[in-house]
Amino acid sequence: MCSCVSGVFGVSAIEVFTPAEVFVENGTTVTLSCSFKSRELISSSSSVTWSFLPEGEAVAFTSIFYYTGGKQFPGSVPQFESRVEWAGDMNKNDASIRVIQMQFKDNGTFSCDVKNPPDISGQMSFTKVRVVMKEALPQTSAAVIVGGVIGAVIGIIIIAVVTYLIIRRQEHSHDYRGCTSLESVSSQNTRVGKKAESSNDNSCCSSPSAPVQGPVIYAQLDHSGSKNSFHKMEPVVYADIRKN
């Protein structure tokens, strides 16, 4: 007669986490993320099962990948044959897989189920996968942030350039401006036949640092060749510049 000692081992629930929805570009490789939380140490008896349910179907999930004891085993779905590989690390509570060459027929729901005895009770987690063309991919938050930063930098550069041009224009408008040739001739004609006094302070033709201009003398030249003829006269201006 033997005596047997029976006991009840405590069972705790394991928690599994996956993204609710994933958009994948057709023809690319995707990593389906799955993490878990367990109160027990990871052992060689820990296992991960990934299953698939095609979009629009109401049948049960079908296993496409199984991992335990450091080894991976393909599932029973032909469309995923040689296309699913292990991408996780059980010691880091990572049970992710990698699916190569995603196709439109891969649209559907993927489930991740992790067991880590004695943590064996718990709910599997689901990810809705949508395979789309590149143009239909939604913009990620990272792309939005990068676009915003680039736009801000371009805006700052434009503002800096405009400000620089405005400042340069204002500085140029304060520079000394000499009078035009029309103003010079008009000023000279008002003093025909007369000795002009020094006009350095009042004339716009002289810069503040220019030498003082002496009296201006006007004369007439006869181009007719006759001493008594006064036809075809042209005014000629002679300027007597005084030395400083």
From TrEMBL:
This is Myelin protein zero-like 1 like. Keywords: Disulfide bond, Glycoprotein, Immunoglobulin domain, Membrane, Signal, Transmembrane, Transmembrane helix. Residues 187-208 are annotated as: Disordered. InterPro entries: Ig-like_dom, Ig-like_dom_sf, Ig-like_fold, Ig_sub, Ig_V-set, Myelin_P0-rel. Its main location: membrane. Gene3D superfamilies: Immunoglobulins. PROSITE patterns: IG_LIKE (PS50835). Belongs to the myelin P0 protein family. It comes from Cyprinus carpio carpio. It is found in: Membrane. Residues 12-130 form the Ig-like domain. Pfam families: V-set (PF07686).
